[in-house]
Amino acid sequence: MSQVYNLFVINKSGGLIYYKDFGSTAKLDTNNSLQLASVWHSLHAISMEFSPVPDCTGIEFLEADNFDLHCFQTLTGTKFFVVTETGAVGIDGLLRVVYELYADYVLKNPFYEVEMPIRCELFDYHLSNHIRGGKDRPTGGSFR
């Protein structure tokens, strides 16, 4: 199974609205997670502006020596990105499932205000269960 280290959700303005650590060795404190989300949002926006390819949608995958970073941007501008072990497969499918969980448990919550920090126990539960290999939610593809 591919190791997922962290999950970030960034609103269209670049604000971090959700962060979850799934057992990375270097735990991020609140300030570092906010800084990383801000840097990623800025790099994503810059890559769209300066890309030589017309209609570029930004960086979707970044490969480093010790980790990979995968990003999924919704049509509304919300970005989901995960930090994984190098060579992780099926992460695009995982990001789509995370988006489905977000739509089901966050956006359909009548008490949630769009673009605000996510505080939803059902979202946390189903997200953690799915990433840790739980079978309570059918998926279109496996990230294992």
Explain what this protein looks like in three dimensions.
By secondary structure, this protein is of the alpha+beta class. It has one domain: 2-Layer Sandwich (Beta-Lactamase), CATH 3.30.450. Helix content is 34%, strand content 19%. The chain contains 3 helices and 5 strands, in the order E-E-H-E-E-E-H-H. The chain has helices at residues 30-50, 91-107, 121-131; strands at 4-10, 16-21, 61-63, 68-73, 79-84. Strands 2-1-5-4-3 form a 5-stranded antiparallel β-sheet. A hairpin with a 5-residue loop joins strand 4 (68-73) and strand 5 (79-84). Helix 2 (91-107) packs antiparallel against helix 3 (121-131). The protein is globular, with a radius of gyration of 15 Å. The model is unreliable at 137-144 (pLDDT under 50).
Q: Summed up, what is this model?
A:
It holds the Pfam family Sybindin. This is Trafficking protein particle complex subunit. The protein has helices spanning 30-50, 91-107, 121-131, and strands at 4-10, 16-21, 61-63, 68-73, 79-84.
